[in-house]
């Protein structure tokens, strides 16, 4: 019996060996492999491996959260990588809640894989550095107003490294040390020159003791801030050094969303930026209001809200509130205001010509024909406090009559601001919805379209070339007596109805909490980065990089400047503009949201 089993045992062993070979061949599908002493090395025709490093989203209790979050991108990207041929075991993902932790994680990954170069994994397969791509979304601190647009808005990570070495770092530290040395020098001099006198004052003057305590507290805060800055600078330098080492070893580096000052990656993925967000909303307003057909006699009234978070410099809350109330007041140019400046630049590149022609105007008078792209501060305001946007809007649309101020559109920039605008417009007496601008389209028709029952053909409402005021003047000239009184009463009623008509309200971020407002027409449109299309583009780029193919063959790639470095391949897709008419196709069908999220 023992001998009888030997052929069967041998056959079983042979079958197992064949299965293992087929498995290895499958793992290295479409790859050139070299086998030596049982070790399989995958070469440049393999899809290889991808390591994804993203910031942590953190815990968000509020439903006022944009869909553009890193946690939302990861499953889309993982699925696209798998569709492109990457094996699940060759896709890794690491999240970090600080640049310090992220830079260490990337450093460990790079060093570990270079140390293991030539070694096999559990399946006996070697993936060379040339077949590895690092997808890195650098952790960059964003102010409160910038976070309202989501995680994908492009920002730049500043570093202390430069081409000549550590000079920039030394200069930065020298400047910081010089400043703090100057303040500590005075206190040291005073204590050393008259120590006995100071001791005497301490025993007799309580206010002096209080001042010392305050000084100590301020000094501690300064030291803490300096330590945090040093940690951030070290982390940035560590990240750059690790990525440079990765590229020098043959790995590929693709930056997602955020660039790094002075660093050139193999590719940069641009999801969106401030200028694109502003331009998108302005273009949609121009199209919806048909500004190309508007006249100076009946201009469209468009109000622009430009929220931003100013640098806290120790000014009182009263001063801050005062600045918020006066939207036309001076606003300092700071790093925190860069987003607002660029957003307004995008808006004005579209709207500027219409204001100049006189076919568009600002109800509040904050913008006019002489406004330029640099006049962003005219409509900027401190949005750091809840309710500040509603307060600014109420001030700008303040009416001296019992009728609301006529406004055709409010560009709110993001959905958080848009939600405040919608609430305030109700309080100010505006009625109807954006659907009323096209009377052929009813709310029930919009809901039917979203539910997939029918498609809507949107047609614009004819808009008079003459303003209602001029029509009234012409009629007054023809009427007299009782007929004129009757006409005046009817005209007043018509004017009030027109002035209280609900305006277009735009936003960005596709907040789940705002989707019902988009459905019912209170918020006319929102926007979102085309996440799924970009995920597919990233997967395609990873395959090309790992197999030695050029990115220039991708339709979504163009060369541009990134982090101050020219000729970097930039992967991008146009953002999605979402309104009630295309909400189903844009958000529900692709799986961004559910029917329940839309309130249906």
Automatic annotation (TrEMBL):
Q: Which SUPFAM superfamilies match?
A: Periplasmic binding protein-like I
Keyword check for Signal: yes
Check the UniProt entry and state the signal peptide residues, or none: 1-31
- What InterPro entries does this protein map onto? Peripla_BP_I
Comp. bias intervals (Basic and acidic residues): 193-204, 481-498
List UniProt keywords, sorted A-Z.
Signal
Q: Where is this region: Disordered?
A: 157-234, 308-333, 461-498
Q: Where is the composition biased (Low complexity)?
A: 170-192, 215-225
Which protein, by its recorded name, is this? Answer: Periplasmic binding protein domain-containing protein
């Amino acid at each position: 019996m023992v001998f009888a089993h030997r052929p069967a045992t041998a056959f079983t062993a042979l079958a197992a060996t064949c299965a293992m070979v087929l498995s290895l061949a499958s793992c290295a599908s479409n790859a050139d492999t070299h086998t030596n002493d049982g070790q399989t090395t995958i070469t440049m025709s393999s899809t290889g491996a991808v390591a994804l490093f993203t910031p942590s989203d953190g815990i968000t209790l509020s439903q006022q959260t944009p869909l553009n979050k890193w946690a939302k991108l990861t499953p889309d990207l993982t699925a696209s990588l798998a569709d492109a041929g990457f094996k699940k075991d060759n896709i890794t993902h690491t999240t970090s809640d600080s640049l310090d932790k992220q830079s260490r994680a990337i450093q460990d990954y790079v060093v570990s894989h270079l140390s293991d170069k030539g070694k096999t994994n559990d399946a006996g397969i070697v993936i060379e550095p040339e077949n590895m791509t690092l997808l890195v979304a650098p952790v960059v601190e964003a102010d409160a107003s910038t976070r309202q647009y989501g995680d994908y808005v492009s920002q730049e990570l500043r570093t202390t490294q430069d081409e000549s070495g550590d000079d920039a770092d030394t200069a930065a530290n020298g400047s910081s040390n010089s400043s703090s040395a100057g303040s500590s020098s005075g206190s040291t001099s005073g204590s050393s020159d008259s120590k006995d006198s100071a001791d005497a004052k301490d025993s007799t003057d309580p206010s002096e003791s209080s001042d010392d305590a305050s000084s100590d507290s301020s000094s501690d805060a300064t030291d803490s801030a300096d330590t945090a800055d040093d940690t951030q600078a070290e982390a940035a330098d560590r990240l750059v050094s690790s990525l440079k080492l990765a590229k020098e070893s043959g790995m590929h580096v693709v930056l997602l969303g955020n660039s790094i000052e002075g660093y050139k990656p193999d590719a940069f993925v641009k999801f969106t930026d401030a200028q694109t967000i502003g331009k998108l909303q302005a273009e949609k307003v121009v199209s919806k209001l048909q500004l190309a057909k508007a006249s100076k006699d009946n201009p469209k009234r468009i109000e622009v809200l430009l929220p931003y978070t100013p640098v806290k410099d120790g000014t009182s809350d009263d001063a801050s509130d005062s600045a918020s109330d006066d939207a036309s007041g001076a606003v300092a140019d700071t790093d925190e205001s860069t987003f607002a400046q660029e957003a307004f630049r995008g808006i004005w590149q579209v709207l500027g010509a219409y204001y100049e022609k006189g076919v568009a105007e600002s109800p509040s008078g904050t913008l006019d024909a002489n406004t330029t792209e640099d006049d962003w501060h005219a409509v900027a305001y401190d949005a750091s406090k809840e309710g500040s946007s509603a307060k600014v809007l109420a001030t700008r649309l303040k009416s001296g009559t019992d009728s609301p101020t006529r406004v055709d559109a409010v560009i709110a920039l993001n959905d958080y601001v848009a939600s405040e605008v919608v609430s305030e417009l109700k309080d100010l007496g505006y009625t109807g919805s954006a659907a009323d601008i096209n009377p052929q389209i009813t709310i029930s028709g919009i809901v039917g379209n979203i539910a997939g029952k029918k498609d809507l053909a949107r047609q614009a409402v004819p808009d008079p070339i003459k303003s209602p005021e001029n029509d009234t003047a012409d009629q007054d000239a023809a009427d007299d007596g009782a007929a004129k009184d009757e006409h005046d009463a009817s005209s007043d009623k018509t004017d009030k109805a027109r002035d209280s008509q609900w305006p277009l309200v735009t936003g960005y971020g596709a907040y789940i909490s705002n989707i019902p407002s988009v459905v019912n027409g209170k918020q006319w449109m929102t926007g979102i980065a085309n996440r799924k299309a970009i995920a597919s583009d990233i997967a395609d780029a990873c395959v090309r990089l790992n197999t030695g193919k050029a990115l220039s063959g991708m339709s979504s790639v163009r060369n541009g400047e990134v982090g101050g470095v020219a000729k970097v391949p930039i992967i991008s897709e146009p953002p999605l503009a979402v309104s009630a008419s295309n909400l189903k196709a844009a958000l529900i069908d692709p799986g961004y949201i559910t029917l329940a999220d839309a309130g249906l």
